[in-house]
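Entry type: protein chain
Record version: 2
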Amino acid sequence: MWEASGAVSIETCREMDCCKQAWDEWLLCDSNPYAVKDRDMMAVENGQYFNLVQIVGKVN
């Protein structure tokens, strides 16, 4: 979508190395109801479907 707009060029698009650590820390947030609800979802998907992606763009 960014490139299709003609306003942005993609410089980098990659899987982030911190995915497992970020999700593990998020799921430990007992005070955040969204994190608590995500626990069951993440247990069912077993690390197969969710990821963190870094996209860096440059305005044309």
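Comment: The radius of gyration is 16 Å.
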